[in-house]
Amino acid sequence: MLKRGMLLVVVALLFVSRAYANPLDDVKKTVDDVVRILADKELKKNSVKRRQALKNSIGTIFDYGEMAKRSLGKQWLQLTPEEKKEFAVLFAALLENSYAGKIESYNNEKIVYVKELLDGDHAEIKSRVVTAKRDEFTLDYRMIRQNGRWMAYDVIIEGVSLVSNFRSQFSRIIKTEGYSGLVKKLGVKNDELKAL
Fold first, then answer.
1. CB-count exposure of residue 129 (10 Å: 0-12, 13-18, 19+)
2. Which CATH number is 106's domain given?
3. Is residue 6 predicted with pLDDT exceeding 60?
4. Alpha-helical regions (H) of 20-80
5. Is residue 14 part of a domain?
6. DSSP structural state of residue 62
7. What is the pLDDT of residue 13?
């Protein structure tokens, strides 16, 4: 009975600590996990398992649905629930396939967390990446708290918003080729990236 009681206390503490976790801790945890995966000698031998481990880790903190919604802007409101789901899946695949290679090229860069800005259910984590050659660039995460969890919905690299960049590109494609043209292009691009 005592063991069961202790187990319940531990589970409750884990739940409470997760509920009150701050966005900076969530970002650090994910970044540390990604670095651990990249350093894993066994995973270096199996690129498919390594890529899947990276996708799983990153997927715990990135809200691909929110990113997809913000990347489409006004167009999102015109989509059916099925189209929204399809677009979110295509967008997530685009991000995963586009950036997995960049993440895998990590070479012991140092991540310096500068500050955490909180505003209700929104937050921004400001950080710098310092390379071995002592070059630096800023890398900030915009986050939203949903269902008690902090999730990233945008990444700002050297002042350029990933979501805003995609929104501009998607808007141009929709104006010339319509929404169906955008979906087609995303499918082709994802197929190209998977083949690399």
1. middle
2. 3.10.450.710
3. no
4. 23-39, 41-44, 47-59, 64-72
5. no
6. B
7. 33
pLDDT digits 0-9 by tens, 137-188: 999 999 999 888 899 999 999 999 999 999 999 999 999 999 999 999 999 9
CA dist 73 and 62 (Å) reads 18
Q: Which residues contact 24 (CB under 8 A, 6 or more apart)?
A: 113, 116, 125
- Give 174 or 109, the one with higher predicted confidence: 174
Place of tokens 């919604």: 69
Does 43 map to a domain?
yes
Residue type for 95, please? Answer: L
> What's 158's DSSP letter?
T
Contact predicate 143/151, CB 8 Å:
yes
Q: How far apart are the first and last CA of the chain?
A: 56
Q: Tell me how far apart the alpha carbons of residues 162 and 154 are, in angstroms, rounded to a whole number.
A: 6
Residue for token pair 């921004």:
124
Report the pLDDT value the prediction gives residue 164, as an integer from 0 to 100.
96
Q: Is residue 189 part of a domain?
A: yes
Please tell me the total count of domains within the chain.
Answer: 1
* Strand order through the sheet with 110-119: 110-119, 122-130, 136-146, 149-157, 160-161
Query: Do the domain assignments include residue 63?
Result: yes
Chain center to CA of 161: 13
Which residue range is the domain that position 82 belongs to?
20-195
